[in-house]
Write a structure and sequence with these properties.
Blueprint: E1 8-9, H1 11-17, E2 23-27, H2 34-40, E3 42-43, E4 47-48, H3 51-54, H4 73-82, E5 90-94, H5 103-112, E6 118-121, H6 124-130, E7 135-136, H7 159-165, E8 172-175, H8 179-182, E9 200-201, H9 217-228, E10 236-239, H10 246-255, E11 262-263, H11 267-271
Parallel strand pairs: 1-6, 2-4, 2-5, 5-6, 8-9, 8-10, 10-11
Antiparallel strand pairs: 3-7
Helix pairs in contact: 5-10
Length: 282
């Protein structure tokens, strides 16, 4: 690998960098009571981003783009500026679900606007606390910045492209949800259990070792090269339930030195609400 900044940073390296003025630490926990949990305890200096309010523009009907559609470029630029993130910032993001919560989604979004100085904390909040990173319940003070955003530079796939891709041998559609959801045995979030026909299931959890840390780039590279075979990553579409956890696998592939495939942002939450063909248990 070249001098390119690794998309993953470990807690020890974060501790060494933590006093740098260019570091912007971001808490991207999501789910029930996430912001309250942040206010009770977060890594000292971390600023909070909200998955629903900052990293998506949530429509009342997930049929239109899924449960977490991307925000407009203007809205995202405003979020970055209000969080004090500038084009010079070295952004380090964590959550409490090994990067699968919203840390990898924010990483992908920053990469998608061309920001290269962004990393996800390996093992997240728990690993940093274990390594001795100081925690705080204080309201973090920081100055706002100006972050102009012009366009999304990473490729996304819409529902029509997925429809075409699933019917050819030149494309691979990867579903990163756990096997029970893919198989249609359970569905905790969407209306119908099942998967996009011809998609393959590669659960994001397979990116991690038993300690909840990312496997080595070498292991991940071997794994995904075997899955992709002779298909170029530009012909690979990765999705999940709502375009969040899929970014965990895009991060893993980037960590492995594989070009980042396309993200299907709408994912199963959109597909399953649009009268498309579905593979279900029944």
């Amino acid at each position: 690998m070249s001098d390119k900044l690794s998309p993953i940073i470990n807690s020890e390296a974060l501790i060494q960098l933590s006093h740098s003025k260019t570091i912007v630490l971001i808490d991207a926990r999501a789910g029930l009571n996430a912001q309250e949990n942040y206010q009770k305890e977060h890594l000292k200096g971390a600023r909070y981003v909200d998955l629903n309010k900052d990293l998506a523009t949530v429509d009342c009907n997930p049929k239109n783009g899924g449960r977490h559609p991307l925000p407009s470029l203007e809205k995202f630029a405003d979020v970055l500026s209000k969080k004090g993130i500038s084009p010079e910032s070295h952004v380090i993001i964590y959550d409490d679900k090994n990067g699968s919560n919203a840390a990898s989604r924010f990483w992908w979004m920053l990469k998608a606007i061309g920001h290269e100085k962004v990393q996800v904390l390996n093992g997240g909040l728990q690993e940093a606390i274990k390594a001795g990173f100081p925690i705080s319940s204080e309201i973090e003070q920081f100055e706002q910045s100006n972050f102009p955003v012009s366009n999304w530079k990473l490729a996304v796939a819409d529902i029509e492209e997925v429809e075409k891709a699933r019917k050819t041998n030149e494309n691979i559609v990867i579903d990163v949800r756990d096997k029970n959801r893919f198989d249609g045995l359970t569905e905790p979030l969407d209306l119908i259990a099942g998967h996009i026909p011809s998609a393959i299931n590669v659960p994001f959890s397979e990116n991690l070792n038993e300690d909840g840390l990312y496997k080595s780039p070498e292991i991940l590279k071997e794994k995904y090269n075997a899955i992709l075979g002779d298909i170029n990553s530009e012909n690979v579409i990765v999705h999940c339930g709502s375009g969040v956890t899929a970014c965990h696998t895009l991060l893993a592939m980037d960590y492995a030195g594989i070009p980042i495939p396309k993200l299907y942002v709408g994912s199963w939450s959109e597909w399953s609400r649009n009268d498309r063909e579905m593979a279900t248990k029944n």
